[in-house]
Specification:
The protein is of the alpha/beta class. The chain is built from eight helices and seven strands, in the order βαβαβαβαβαβαααβ. About 40% of the residues are buried. The structure holds NADPH dihydro-nicotinamide-adenine-dinucleotide phosphate and 2-hydroxyethylsulfonic acid. The site of 2-hydroxyethylsulfonic acid has 6 residues, from loops. Keywords: Oxidoreductase.
């Protein structure tokens, strides 16, 4: 029987690339996100290869997540790998200049959403046991500060510590947990962050070579397919053209 992937945020970027990669590898895929048209289009595309279950789901809604997991069709119930990918950044300006509601949306999606989905799927993953995976998409922003990252970066720091702490709780169950932390990657991420301003979004990637969604999907597939006795705690992957800047000095 084929293994089952549950990926959140499959309507775009890393999530869509991950669904495609796992489907090509013969996994059954549960694809979720809020935009139903995109989910259905992806389901049609991948349905030619493998069993696909599209789930219209807002990860912020704990009850909807619980119900969606509880009502998975029998052939999709035994999830092997959960990829907590749905997430977003908003308000790329100093914290003192941004709307509180944008900060709450990031917390509710990047933190509460990940907790909601993980909590709902933990019993299943523990039942799957040896070799099961929870792969949480963190970010370099969870480790390294930069102006305008405020709550976004902090939400990704949560992903790192949450992943490590989960490992402690899951010790002995065979379930593996990874914080996969990419650097700059070209997806719709910057379009969302800049509220649909395509010029501002494109400027993020101008003149450089960012990671691609497939680069990240390949890394997810690598981690998910490692022998059962190996746990990758954290991976930070960046394009070769990305490195750290120095401390900023404020001068009069
Ligand atoms: P995209 O904007 O291309 O994709 C984000 C996905 O998240 C979409 O499928 C979107 O689907 C989904 N999503 C957003 N909010 C919700 C919600 N409330 N409920 C369910 N799904 C939601 O960006 P990326 O692919 O780049 O982002 C994927 C993850 O990678 C995020 O967690 C992001 O923080 C992280 N990341 C991105 C990096 C980058 O440079 N691109 C680098 C490091 C990490 P829909 O709108 O249909 O719900
Ligand atoms: C997304 C990468 O550098 O925009 O997590 O924070 S960055």
């Amino acid at each position: 029987m084929s293994k089952i992937l549950f990926v959140t945020g499959a309507t775009s970027g890393f999530g869509a690339a991950t669904a495609r990669r796992f489907a090509r590898d013969g996994w059954s895929v549960i694809i979720s996100g809020r935009r139903l048209e995109r989910l259905n289009a992806l389901a049609d595309e991948l349905g030619a290869l493998v069993p696909v279950h599209p789930l219209k789901l807002d990860v912020q809604d704990a009850e909807a997540v619980r119900q969606a997991v509880q009502s998975l069709p029998a052939e999709f119930r035994r999830v092997h790998t959960l990829v907590n990918n749905a997430g977003l950044a908003l308000a790329p300006a100093a914290m003192q200049q941004v709307a509180l509601s944008d900060l709450h949306t990031m917390i509710n999606t990047n933190i509460t959403g990940v907790v909601n989905v993980t909590h709902a799927l933990l019993p299943t993953l523990i039942e799957t046991g040896a070799g099961a995976n929870i792969i949480n998409i963190g970010s370099t922003a969870g480790q390294w500060p930069y102006p305008g990252s405020h709550v976004y970066g902090a939400s990704k720091a949560f992903i790192k510590q949450f992943s490590y702490n989960l490992r402690c709780d899951l010790l002995g169950t065979g379930v593996r947990v990874t914080d996969l932390a990419p650097g700059i990657a070209e997806t719709e991420f910057s379009l969302v962050r800049n509220r649909g301003d395509r010029t501002a979004a494109n400027a993020v990637y101008d003149g450089t070579v960012p990671l691609s969604p497939d680069d990240v999907a390949d890394q997810i597939a690598h981690i998910a397919n490692l022998p059962d006795h190996i746990n990758i705690n954290r991976v930070e992957m960046v394009p070769v053209r990305q490195a750290w800047g120095p401390y900023e000095i404020y001068r009069e």
